[in-house]
Each structure stands twice: as structure tokens, then as C-alpha cells.
Amino acid sequence: MIGRLNHVAIAVPDLEAASEQYRTALGAKVNPPQDEPDHGVTVVFIELPNTKIELLYPLGDNSPILGFLEKNPSGGIHHVCYEVDDILAARDQLKANGLRVLGNGEPKIGAHGKPVLFLHPKDMNGTLVELEQV
Ligand SMILES: CC[C@H](C(=O)O)C(=O)SCCNC(=O)CCNC(=O)[C@H](O)C(C)(C)COP(=O)(O)OP(=O)(O)OC[C@H]1O[C@@H](n2cnc3c(N)ncnc32)[C@H](O)[C@@H]1OP(=O)(O)O
Ligand SMILES: [Co+2]
């Protein structure tokens, strides 16, 4: 079912500082910030040869990453995103295996304009897993 690693997301306390660090200290290709109000975050994608890093910063008072940053004020790895070719089939198979899908269980359109879902971290070895249909 799961395919390539699409991205690793890092929640950061300062989006500009983190972007600049990847751009200058690490020589990475850093894309401009993208507000994603439907997800309560502003994201910056950093393109690596074999995957992407997604820097996350809270957008709005109800951002789902506020709790994470309160617990991790220096930031930290927030989630990993795997690619799937059929997100509804993947969802149904995972639910049939007892895993919890977050939100109302329906995919939302993510930062790449593709449907995404999230699995509860407690069901995935303490790791928030995002699935993106490609
Ligand atoms: C633009 C879209 C973009 C894309 O790639 O396309 C994105 O990736 S959007 C990313 C932001 N959106 C989301 O993360 C949506 C899914 N996340 C959630 O619904 C919440 O973050 C949730 C439910 C995972 C956690 O919310 P919250 O921290 O407010 O809840 P709790 O404090 O009750 O946490 C429950 C339990 O889970 C642990 N936890 C929380 N976040 C994480 C995490 N990122 N990784 C691992 N574990 C996490 C938390 O510590 C609690 O554990 P406990 O032992 O009970 O303390
Ligand atoms: Co993501």
C-alpha cells in the first residue's frame, strides 16, 4: 500500500530563521512560505534529491500544531508523509485494521493539491503519519 516517503515535517518556532538556516547553512533549495488556512499552518517546502522537508508554523488560533510547539518549544519532527495511489482504499484498509483516521475521516486537499489523511500517532508507534494520494 504505502509508496515513497513524500516528506518529513518539522514544526519550527521561527519559520524564517529555519528557512534561512536550510538555505545558507545547508545550501538547500527552499521554496517560499505557503499559507494553508484549511490546515492551520504555514508551510515551507525544502526540496532534497530524494524527498522533501516540510517546515511547519502555526497559522491561526486553532492550529493543530500549537500543542506540539508548546511541548517542544525548540521545534521537532512533527510527522512523516507516505504516498499512496488510492487514499480511500488505504483509509478503509487501515480502519479495518483498527487504526484511527484523524478528523472526520475524509481526505482534505493538502499543500500539493492532493488528498491527504492523518493517522493517530498513538496507533503508529508515537509517530504522526500523513498519507498523500499521488
Ligand atoms: C497543508 C497540509 C500539510 C501537507 O503536508 O499537506 C500538512 O502536513 S498539515 C500538518 C498539520 N496538520 C495536522 O497535523 C493534522 C493532524 N494532527 C492532529 O490532528 C493533531 O496534531 C493531533 C491529534 C495528532 C495531536 O493534537 P494535540 O497535540 O492537540 O493533541 P493531544 O495533545 O491530545 O495529543 C494526543 C497524543 O498524541 C501526541 N502527539 C501529538 N502530536 C504528535 C505528533 N506530531 N507526533 C507524535 N505524537 C504526537 C501527544 O503527545 C499526546 O500523547 P500523550 O502521550 O497522550 O501526551
Ligand atoms: Co505534511
UniProtKB/TrEMBL annotation:
Q: Which Pfam families match?
A: Glyoxalase_4
Per its UniProt record, what SUPFAM superfamilies does this chain match? Glyoxalase/Bleomycin resistance protein/Dihydroxybiphenyl dioxygenase
Per the record's keyword annotation, is Isomerase included, yes or no? yes
Q: Where is the VOC domain?
A: 4-134
Which keywords annotate this record? Answer: Cobalt, Isomerase, Metal-binding
Q: Which GO terms describe its biological process?
A: L-methylmalonyl-CoA metabolic process
Q: Which residues form a coiled coil?
A: none
Q: Which reaction does it catalyse?
A: (R)-methylmalonyl-CoA = (S)-methylmalonyl-CoA
* Stored InterPro entries: Glyas_Bleomycin-R_OHBP_Dase (IPR029068), MeMalonyl-CoA_epimerase (IPR017515), MMCE/EMCE_epimerase (IPR051785), VOC_core (IPR037523)
GO MF annotation list = metal ion binding; methylmalonyl-CoA epimerase activity
EC nos: 5.1.99.1
Q: Superkingdom, according to UniProt?
A: Bacteria
Q: Which CDD domains match?
A: MMCE
Indicate the family of this protein: Belongs to the methylmalonyl-CoA epimerase family.
Protein name per its UniProtKB record: methylmalonyl-CoA epimerase
From what organism does this protein derive?
A: Thalassobius vesicularis
